């Protein structure tokens, strides 16, 4: 027990190494650009890019991954029934009965209700268990070591903005340093320590930009299709079978699900995503009508005993 606890502690410490690497590179780039090159005419724009990059990176790292609410946890009586039942088919039927009260449309590959034995919750649509964070994450996209956090419903917008402002930061540095890089190349740059910063700034900015460009382009495609990284590799399974486009409701609505309806806030790292991560509109609306709680939206919103069950519907 003590050994496993020590290993988990070491894992948590080492998981911050990628973040420290990124932070060190960015702080060095700030020092080299502001204090060594001291390009006064560009400093205002540089600081705007630097602040937006730092803000989005901070939000990506420290925004907690959202987990399913209590409505998706087994009640004490249901848990007793489930654990005491030894037949797998009977256990599956118990989960089916419980799921009828919830907006759940996706299934496991076997066709059964998706249930997490570790967290003891019925998984909402697009929710997956993260073995690193040791919890179920709403609309999980992937676990990113560079932010030491799960990218999911609560911080996906921040992650996309982090990628975009990282690219902008790299492009701005490369564009403004390029003229000095050419002077270095032909030997016209004075023999000062700053010339080495010019060389490394140009190299690092271009290297990060190329890698970020492919990653950002991939996630733009995912947003346009309304898919997560996990769903791109393994299509979500519905009652009628797998469907990669099951949550694709059109580019405009797909964008609004991530960035919100107010376009003035799209590029600001504040949470504006639609809903609460427990339910997502389906491309095939007929599937929703099969759930009695969603067949009538008013019924879903009013089916509370003052509780979260009603608030889940109100978010949509």
UniProtKB/TrEMBL annotation:
Q: Which InterPro entries match?
A: Palmitoyltrfase_DHHC (IPR001594), PFA4/ZDH16/20/ERF2-like (IPR039859)
Cite a single GO MF annotation: zinc ion binding
* EC category name: transferase
User: Entry's Pfam families?
Assistant: DHHC (PF01529)
The reaction(s) this protein catalyses:
L-cysteinyl-[protein] + hexadecanoyl-CoA = S-hexadecanoyl-L-cysteinyl-[protein] + CoA
Q: Where is this region: Disordered?
A: 282-316
Task: Identify the keywords attached in UniProt to this record, alphabetized.
Answer: Acyltransferase, Membrane, Transferase, Transmembrane, Transmembrane helix
Topology relative to the lipid bilayer, per the entry, is: Multi-pass membrane protein
Subcellular location per the Swiss-Prot or TrEMBL entry: Membrane
The reply to whether Nucleotide-binding figures as a keyword in the UniProt entry is: no
This protein's GO cellular component annotations are: Golgi membrane
The family classification in the record reads: Belongs to the DHHC palmitoyltransferase family.
PANTHER family, from UniProt? Answer: PALMITOYLTRANSFERASE ZDHHC16
Q: What is the name listed in the Swiss-Prot or TrEMBL entry for this protein?
A: Palmitoyltransferase
Q: Which organism is it from?
A: Seriola dumerili
